[in-house]
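Morning!

This is the sequence you dropped in the shared folder:
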Amino acid sequence: MSSSSHSHSHSSSILLTRVVLLLVFLHFSLLFVTNVTGTHLHHNHPHHTHSSDKIINLPGQPKVGFQQFAGYVTVDQKKHKSLFYYFVEAEIDPSSKPLVLWLNGGPGCSSLGVGAFSENGPFRPKGNILVKNEHSWNREANMLYLETPVGVGFSYSIDPTGYDAVGDAVTARDNLVFLRRWFNKFPQYKHRDLFITGESYAGHYIPQLANLMVQFNKKEKVFNLKGVALGNPVLEFATDFNSRAEYFWSHGLVSDLTYKMFTKSCNYSRYVSEYYRGYVSPVCSKVMRQVGRETSKFVDKYDVTLDVCMSSVLSQSKIISPQEQNGESIDVCIEDETVNYLNRQDVRKALHARLVNVRQWAVCSNILDYQLLDVEIPTITVVGSLVKNGIPVLVYSGDQDSVIPLTGSRTLVHQLAVKLKLNTTTPYRVWFAGEQVGGWTESYGNILSFATVRGAAHEVPYSQPARSLVLFKSFLDSRPLPEML
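The structure's back. Tokens below.
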């Protein structure tokens, strides 16, 4: 088949699929509107006080002394776009602790399912109950988890066009509107120190949101932004993705010959660019098949030393890291506790959550049409402008992650420091957590820093909870990471 007729039939089949999806959408949204119009708008009134968002008790949760809230904030009246949040106050003395917004990546994956229930939230689902996470970040802060953009998790748009062509710019704007309106529900947090943290594709979400805040503050001081922390983030797609070949090779996952092909014939950023544009060249196909064969599908790319898998934690990385399909994929996690838990009706009720345009809650959105090519727009420059505006930035890397390897992040942070003429204020050194080395760190101008977390995967708080908490506390206190045992 000639490439033009092939691409023609490809595009017409895509068109057909889209038409079918649209019809299905229209059908369900009509059903939905007739079912809930009566109650829906009343619930979502932006000036509603937060008392109706208070969680009495999550099914199966242990007894705790802190308050939890969950609910919706409308970010677009016209399309009835509503973002879902889950908020846990600090375990001890919340009024003296900062507010931290946590965002997961994807693009299109859930901060509730990944961040709150698999990583650094107060509970982890286990069978029918929740168990306490002893290293929860709400030991140090009031934690706000946001399901963004619209179409992720329980966040929805009644008008299905709300899911079309969503990209970084729309997401940043919606997140800004969300925060402003969330402060109307929780005015006591309005002037609290605010930090934004997250990982993976949040390397795009967070700098862009923080940048909007800085701009907004010039007109009217609303956001008391004190710092940004980015875990294994996509900051400059070519540097981040292409450091993968060296990572694979240095960890013994690929041969010398394949390493050469993976850098010379078709590097990873070229493959991803082609993949997102719907045409993978024969040479890239061949290289990726070879890389796939050698790295093996039994090794978790998000943690090359890990044997087990937790699917909700992995899903957010699958999107920025498309895999060449070769035959059957082996799913080593048949059941995922988080998905089961969040799809229980009693849990949804306790969270004041509802499903709109989807049958069930999913870790990563199936209905969101994200502009994936936005991954190619660098955000390291935005990080630079935050630093210039006096906002401290920490980039941290789990050192077992091959998806966004530490080598790429470290290079980018160092280059930025040189560009901004920042002196090294903490030379590269180890830091400690408990009696062990927690990782390595370096900082520049007391405002930009890089740290690795030893033995951590793409999802640092999931894979190294105790070390991640030490890192988080130092970040909030704007103190260097512990130097001594």
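Headline: The first helix runs from residue 3 to 43.

More detail when I'm at my desk.
O.
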